[in-house]
Amino acid sequence: VEYVDEIEFSALIDDHDSDRRLLKRVSIASGSWDVVVVPVDDTYDPSFPFIIFGSVMIFLIGMGVSFWMYSNMRRTVEIYRAKAQAEAERTIVTNLFPETVRERLVEGAKAKNELIRRRARRRKAKGSLNVSDHLTSEALFGSKPIADYYPAVTILCADLAGFTAWSSQREPSQVFSLLEVIYHDFDEVAKRRGIFKVETVGDAYVAAAGVPNYRDDHAVVIARFADNMLDHLHLLVNQLETTLGPDTGDLDIRIGIHSGPVTAGVLRGDKGRFQLFGDTMNMASRMESTAGAGNIQITAETAALLKVAGKGHWIVPRDGKVMVKGKGNLSTFWLKKHARAGSHVSSGGSLGSLDAQEWFPKEENAEKAKVERLVTWNVEQMCILVREIVARRDATRAAAAKGRKPARMPSLRKMSLDTASDSTETDVKLEDNVTPLEQVKDVIYLPPFDEAAFRSEVDAREVRIPSKVVGQLREFVTGIGSMYRANPFHNFEHASHVAMSVTKLLSRIVNPRQHNIEVSKTSPSAVTDVAASIHDHTFGITSDPLTHFAAYFSALIHDVDHPGVPNPVMMEEMPMVAENYKHKSVAEQNSVDLAWLLLRGDEYKEMCEFIFENADEMKRFRQLVINMVMATDVMDKELGALRKERWQKAFDEEYREFKSEDEDKNRKATIVIEHLIQASDVSHTMQHWHVYIRWNENLFMELYDAFR
Q: What positions does the domain Guanylate cyclase occupy (predicted)?
């Protein structure tokens, strides 16, 4: 065999074929062999495997560090959340229990845990548990009861007068809004006074001084706190009336105070809290229940302590004796209001800067302030409805822009007030010698359900109303309020009550079976199906924001310029007005014309253009207003007979007149919206006894004045 020497790569460059291969012929035995030598690149690095291994190790180490950092970050977040939760729980416990009680609760919890461990070991050793161990508090909780005796304590019990009647007309969120604002203010004053808040039960507020920390002036500080509560409540309810509606400013408070010994502690178990027990607690509650609205009643024991403290001029004996359950007839005292200068404690800055005259305006200014608060509240409610109108209009336009065919109203000629009017303007011209009563229609056509607009509609709360429009709306409502006379019953406050009732009834007109569906968790198509079903169930009333606005507007203006006498008397005393309205529903027609004349004034042009897109919308709005206001005349027998006949056409199968499904549905809708305002106009007869008595008394006084 001929050996082939190693050839350098450089030599191969000069002696190679086209494929860069070196050819050598080698003779072996009987023949020869061709040997092909392939060049080898001398750049080969034998450390390459180590590089690969190092890269993999670096990657694994990086992954390990990343997982460690992620785990550490999660642990940090969990620790932060645990600290936040512990802080929140500590705050709750701090609010529920005094400091000394909290320490004993912690010690008791530790003792209970140790007791549980001992029982577990005993059960494991003996296989049974002695039942007698459960017959004592120590056996159940591992420590003695958390209870102490306090010989000198003054307890205050307060309750909102008129709250039950007020809350029966409100939504749950409004009820809690009122209580949270009032209780927060009381709590702030209590902290500044160093008074311990015991509990709140519904609209009742209980506080005490001398427990859990002893103090000599417990009766004096509670008396000052009671006076602060009375002052602050009157200011707060007046402020809240602008957002929570009529009667809020009429809420008052009654307060009872008693001094004596109490037993205080924590009844351990589920939902345990710090409580007071004993006759002193019961007596304070009895003083509150017999105090009467706006009064602070104290017992002879508390009065004696105030006299000893040199505050005898703060109290005055109550005339007669008070019958107290379980005690018999007792002599009690009134705590004078604003008996001492500088006793006010601010709960937020502004309250403390007011003196007594600013807190309680004179009678002539009080009524004016009340009307202003009602105006503010009505404007806010109407702005909500206007936003819904604009949101629906924008949704209809958006649906049309996407090429979806919007739902169309039936021909407005069926309910036109002026067939010659230009639909591009928002003016409505009235026919000569045609009274509002003669314009009442049997059927008012409401818009059909617009699926495309419903899908495109945004939250009405996002709609922005120009400040100029809001200003004009406020001026309009103020003008309406000024057109009401100072009648005991038919006044601006009554109109605001009717408007509030209409709003509440409209919010309740839904199909209960559909209303309970959690549409927020379903698909958009399912939500649309539910909305369409509710639309059909309510004859289209709930789907039309303009109808809602018309109902509120009608309630607000339905008794404008009411003289305080029935229609027959009004026709005798005002023959010219009676002649103008052809001796039918004179007061109601006069209210419609006066309110409409005010609305169409040039000073409200921008407001009308913002609310009503065109003349057709304003025509339909006016038609709704006319029908609803005329429906409030329930004393006219002829009108009553016509309404009964229309009801039979719509709902009585024996007399039902069916021309088309659309007409039948809208006739029912027209009847329902008229009945809504009728029911709201006399809603006080179906509300809480307190409301019933108040407004019935007002109606009696008005009728009595008319009789005289």
A: 154-288
The amino acid sitting at 33 is W
* pTM given for the model: 0.73
CA dihedral 52, 58, 64, 66 (to 10 degrees): -120
206 φ/ψ angles, rounded to the nearest 5 degrees: -125, 130
Contacts 24+ apart (CB under 8 A), 437-441: 437/581, 437/582, 437/584, 437/585, 437/588, 437/589, 437/630, 439/623, 439/626, 440/626, 440/627, 440/630, 441/414, 441/415, 441/623, 441/627, 441/670
Rounded Cα gap, residues 495 and 592, in angstroms: 14
Residue 47: Cβ within 10 Å count:
8
The H or E element containing residue 265 is strand 252-266
**Strands of 142-195, DSSP E:** 146-161
pLDDT for position 93: 60
Helices (H) and strands (E) in the chain, counts: 25, 12
State the Cα angle at 506 between 503 and 508, rounded to 5°. Answer: 115
CA–chain centroid gap for 188, Å, is: 23
Q: Which contacts (CB < 8 Å, 24+ apart) does range 504-510 have?
A: 504/169, 504/171, 505/676, 505/679, 505/680, 506/541, 506/542, 506/548, 506/551, 506/676, 509/538, 509/541, 509/542, 509/672, 510/534, 510/537, 510/538, 510/542
Please report which helix (H) or strand (E) contains residue 90, including its range: helix 48-96
How far apart are the C-alpha atoms of 479 and 475, rounded to whole Å?
6
The answer to whether 375 touches 474, Cβ cutoff 8 Å, is yes
**Furthest C-alpha separation in the chain:** 155
| Residues 344 and 380 grouped into a single domain | no
- In whole angstroms, give the CA distance from residue 591 to residue 559: 6
- 31 shares its domain with 159: no
pLDDT in tens, 396-442: 888 887 766 555 555 443 434 333 334 334 444 455 578 999 999 99
Residues 6+ apart with CB under 8 A from 373: 238, 241, 242, 249
| Res. 121: pLDDT tops 80 | no
Both 667 and 616 in a single domain? Answer: yes
Give 43's pLDDT tier (boundaries 50, 70, 90).
Answer: low
pLDDT tens for 312-334 read 999 999 998 999 888 889 999 99
Mean pLDDT, the chain, integer: 81
311 shares its domain with 384:
no
| pLDDT band per the 50, 70, 90 thresholds, residue 125 | low
C-alpha pair distances (Å), 495 with each of 344, 486, 591: 37, 13, 12
Number of domains composing the chain? 5
Q: Measuring CA to CA, which residue among 247, 244, 239, 245 is closest to residue 348?
A: 239
Instruction: Identify whether residues 297 and 353 lie together within a single domain.
Output: yes
Instruction: Assess whether 515 and 582 both reside in one domain.
Output: yes
